[in-house]
Amino acid sequence: MSLGPYASFIVTSYGLVAFVVVALIVWIALDFRQQKQALRNLEASGVTRRSAQRSGESS
What we know:
The chain has 59 residues and is mostly helical. The protein is 64% helix and 0% strand.
């Protein structure tokens, strides 16, 4: 497969896009873990979710 005179540009572009996509996936995974830990800490300290209230209760 010959990419012609623009081969270096094409390969570099694909490489950069792949790097950005992988970086975003890692960032989202790390943030997810951090948010889950923060939620666990809040629940351990007694903070409850509004969605966990029974439907008959009003706030």
